Amino acid sequence: MSSSLILSVITFVYGFSAILYVAAWVFKKDAIGKTATWITLMGIAAHTAGILLRWVESYRLGIGHAPLSNMYESLIFFSWILTLIYLIVERANKNRVVGAFVAPIAFLAMAYASLSPNINDRIQPLVPALKSNWLIAHVVTSFIGYAAFGIAFGISIMYLLKQREGGSGGRLLALFPEARVLEALNHQMVMFGFLFLSGGIITGAVWANSAWGTYWSWDPKETWSLITWFIYATLLHARLMRGWRGKRLAYISIIGFGAVLFTYFGVNLLPGLHSYGK
Amino acid sequence: MKPNTSNSVLEKTWDFFSSVRLTVVLLLTLAATSIIGTLVPQNASPAEYFQTYGPFLFRLFSLLDIFDMYHCWWFQLLLLLLTANILICSLNRLSGTWKIVFVKNPPFVLERFRKLENKAVFTDSRPLDTLKDLYVSKVKRRFRYVRTEETGKGFCIFAEKGRWTRLGVYAVHFSVVLLLIGALIGSFFGFEGFVTLGEGETEQHVRLRKTGAVIPLDFAIRCDAFHVSFYESGSPKEYRSDLTILEGGKPVLKKSIRVNDPLHYKGVSIFQSSYGRLPPRRITLKLLSTETKMEYIKEVSAGQRIDLPEGAGAFVYQDFKTRYPFRGQNLGETVIGSLVPPQGSAREIVLPLRFPGFDRMRKGAFVFSVQRVTPRYYTGLQVSKDPGVWVVYTGFIVMLIGCYITFFMSHKRLCIELTPRSKGTRVQVSGTANKNKLSMEAVIDKMAKDLAA
Ligand code: HEM
Question: A146 with A257, same domain?
Fold first, then answer.
């Protein structure tokens, strides 16, 4: 069995668990929620195996490298780390409703990687620019950051829904964690993401310096990662201003994730030369 | 640190620069304006811009320096304002934090801990006097600073740790300043240039990317050889230049550089950045006589004239083209020669490497084709010097450590109050943290469990 096949199957597993999380929330059935958690756990186990297998396969092809070298592989990693962080958050908060808003993100990333005609799932040899240990550090840190921001995005949507109903809300919103908990969670995820986004930008800069002799050249991808960083830095400081808690922070978190998505997908539409992701 | 003159312009400026509101405005402005430079390609030629944007937008963008916006005055001004903001804001708050962090005897107000909601209460069956030493030693295992006090009714233990973590946020802010200082050092005392070297060539000058000026180096660079290899799929596998550094004509260092593996010498770094083909020095020709059907193999160097067999005159290897257009098609790499017959005038002959039969069309006494060329490359090297890079790297490390401390560590204070009861002792564990209150709850729970055990 090839890793691509395993990973395509995982797409459906995650799709199924996302549906279960939503169903558990809408029908208020704890049993469905527990099933969702178990299926996600099995999914991530197979997902881990799939990534490792892909790594082994690349060595069998004689072009061995960590499976983090192109769009397909980075999306697979994004989905993996997002699911992992989500499961930890679920355990710590003992609330599965967040899953209804976060599990679909993992599913969409996998589905896009597996099904989009623009994405090549073949294992390709590394071009000279990517032959660097900094590649691994750069991709891993960046995507941990993106995954944390993805979860913060889901949580911010929940926060806005909860607040729209004036706190008490309808039957479904009553199942959400308290607004105050959602806000704290959003902030925690943003802090975590900010640390790793900083790490991602830094490892990228060190890598660029070792490959091309400049740590920063304002190419669109670099600039967009910096824009993302500015947005989340704004969020961290906006908390300190009167009247800026709650809704506004949730909006900034949502805009921030928009910037993450643009950094990742949109930049290829702009004029520029970032070798990665093309 | 605040100036004393009340309400002076100085004080107003100081207040303006120490506000977080300004920070938020600046960060959002930086984020928004940075987008422009990703939509408008930077540093292209004026002619291209004129063609793309037309006269009006061209004028407007030129006026606002949009074509090189990340280095223009208003963008740099925003960065300068942010730096002033960080410095003044930090100075403003540092003295307060300093007083908290560097006290000998941190103050504890028992009343405040009693009022906290965040606490765990249990009864220990042992008498107060046995518990004292036991508890203190247990608390010491988890907290750095521990102090005990009599309360009148009983006894209490104060403990705290992580006071220094309050400095983490200053590290983060200082790291941003370090990055900007490092970038400034680089732009004043460094350079970014490039040089192209054919195999075997030596060069002591580089051309600067920004201005196009040519500057001399303290040493010369020689390219001994360049190698490029490909995967089966045709995508490039490795670019490698074998370089020698020469001082006063004498080789002092040899190294093969690759992408991601540069050479450093005397503060100057040399990176593999591009390559290309040069006209080969020597080529091997195959001559097929149309009359005798004899085949001849001849080697010829660039510019050399060789006599042809069967008294057919002479041949000169004149030029080598990497592309040769012919009837709307590109024939690829092509040797241009000149055929000098015994009588009459010389004529040009065209020998594309990919089409060995091409010369048949000429219907001459010989059909020429190129059998082999010894490929010759030039390597494109980025040669740069950036004495600020270590300041920037220090900033990177300080930023990561600072963020970790700020986000995930806190100044935690703990108070354990012991009151004797008729049977055993009532124990109340409470505490505060300057941030991440949720994790403090966990600390209190753990501490209470540990004590009760
Ligand atoms: C790019 C620039 C900046 C970055 C990356 C940055 C980063 C940070 C970070 C990571 C925190 C911690 C936030 C938290 O714990 O939630 C923080 C807090 C803070 N920042 Fe900044 N900052 C920047 C600029 C500024 C500026 C210009 C000011 C000036 C007013 C400022 C004032 C503050 C204050 C007052 C705090 C709160 C400190 C505390 O909790 O004691 N920051 N900053």
Answer: yes
Note down the domain range covering A183: 127-278
Domain B103-162+410-452: which CATH class?
A: alpha beta
Specify the pLDDT at position A166.
Answer: 56
Which residue ranges in chain B fall short of pLDDT 50?
1-2
**Gap from B295 CA to chain A (nearest CA, Å):** 43
Tell which of A62, A84, A116 closes a domain.
Answer: A116
ipTM score assigned to the predicted complex? 0.93
In angstroms, what CA-CA distances link A44 with A20, A86, A107, B126, B212? 16, 11, 12, 49, 54
CA nearest A62 in B: which residue?
A: B231
Query: For B29, how many CA atoms within 13 A lie in the half-sphere containing its CB?
Result: 14
Q: CA-to-CA distance for B193 and B210, rounded, in angstroms?
A: 8
Q: Clarify whether residues A243 and A168 are in a common domain.
A: yes
Please say whether the beta carbons of B236 and B263 come within 8 A.
Answer: no
Q: What is the pLDDT of residues B63-104, one digit of tens each?
A: 888 888 999 999 999 999 999 999 999 999 998 899 888 888
Rg (CA), chain A: 19
Among left, alpha and beta (phi > 0; psi -120 to 50; other), residue B172 is alpha
**Ligand 1 centroid – CA B24 distance (Å):** 10
Look at B38 and A220 and tell me if their CB atoms are within 8 Å. Answer: yes
* pLDDT 10s digits, A110-130: 999 988 887 888 888 888 888
pLDDT in tens, B279-302: 888 899 999 988 888 899 999 988
Give the residue from A116, A136, A158 where a domain finishes: A116
Task: Inform me whether the C-beta atom of residue B438 falls under 8 Å from chain A C-beta atoms.
Answer: yes
Question: Chain B: nearest CA to A69, how far in angstroms?
Answer: 14
**CB-based contact, A95 to chain B, within 8 Å:** no
- Beta carbons of A127 and B235 less than 8 Å apart: yes
Q: How far is the centre of ligand 1, averaged over its atoms, from the C-alpha of A260 (Å)?
A: 21
* A254, A136: one domain: yes
